[in-house]
Amino acid sequence: MTQSLEPIVPEEAVDQYLKSRSQDATESTIQNHRYRLKHFLKWCDHASIENLNELSGRDCENYKNWRIDQGEVADITLEQQLRTFRVFLRYCESIEAIETGISEKLIIPKVSKGEAVRDDAITHEEACAIRDHLRKYEYASKEHVIFSLLYHTGMRRGACVSLDVGDWYSDEEYIEVQHRPDASVSTPLKLKQEGERNLSILDAGLSEAIDDYLSHNRIPHTEPDGREPLFTTSNGRISGNALQSTIYKLTRPCYYRKDCPHNRDMEMCEATEAANYPSCPSSVSPHPIRRSAIMHHLNSDVSKSIASERMAVSVDTLEEHYDARSREEKRKARQSELSNL
């Protein structure tokens, strides 16, 4: 018996899927899924698919191959996009937009554990060089405190954006991370309430810098519901994009080392222009700073359970996506813990 399907154009199906996911996912997750599925919509235009009812298992394979042929797509990126696509297909099956079982026909290439651990990060030595440069030349600036806080705690970009002045407990030297999706300026955490935690600031110099930033350099701003953002610009609470641009700038080698490893003319280089920081091959976004912080914690013999709680990441995810230590580094870490037996 042929299944009765409700005709629907691909764009409408994606919109409905994203609206459905908004009930149980954060805005950043929705944005990620929107970005990943835009490639599918482009393929639909390419393949002249105007009614999703027509989609077949062979079409799914054709889309995957088309995506690979579009350019250099990292294996881990392709896997993520296809996994999101499969979730979307299952949603389409549930609303009778495609035949039941299509989602199970999608073959997703396996990515090895080694490939799944991304290598975009900075070394501990580079992080220290950036921090020392900021401490010497831009002490207690917003940039100094943001970078130092991200690397010291490994918090996500969204968590950093969400911080209020009242979240900093100077006497006890810890910062509180809270999920506030319903505030006048919504600042949800990726893991929602599960991402809430108190983070000890174990660097006395950073604690003092936070206090001095608040006393001398923070731009005053109060939101409609009375919240006072910790990190502000002339337009109010710092945005995720503005924070990302800041990290792009700070991680340019010419910014903190005054030399260029890419043999560029630093006075003429486009990467020194505010709008083009990402064009520097050595610049990284906030997430690699988080990855680097996690790696440093693990290399410093911090147990995975403690790192998991501090960074708000499961031990399984930590092992699969963040622990890039060699077998010898892991052996030395185990030896250190076992030395107390």
From TrEMBL:
Domain of life according to the entry: Archaea
A single GO BP: DNA integration
GO molecular function, one term: DNA binding
Domain Tyr recombinase: 117-335
Gene3D superfamilies tied to this protein: 1.10.150.130, Intergrase catalytic core (1.10.443.10)
Domain Core-binding (CB): 8-93
InterPro entries per record: CB, DNA_brk_join_enz, Integrase-like_cat_sf, Integrase_catalytic, Integrase_recombinase_N, Integrase_SAM-like_N, Tyrosine_recombinase_XerCD
Keywords on record: DNA integration, DNA recombination, DNA-binding
PANTHER family: INTEGRASE_RECOMBINASE PROTEIN MJ0367-RELATED, PHAGE INTEGRASE-RELATED
Protein name: Tyrosine-type recombinase/integrase
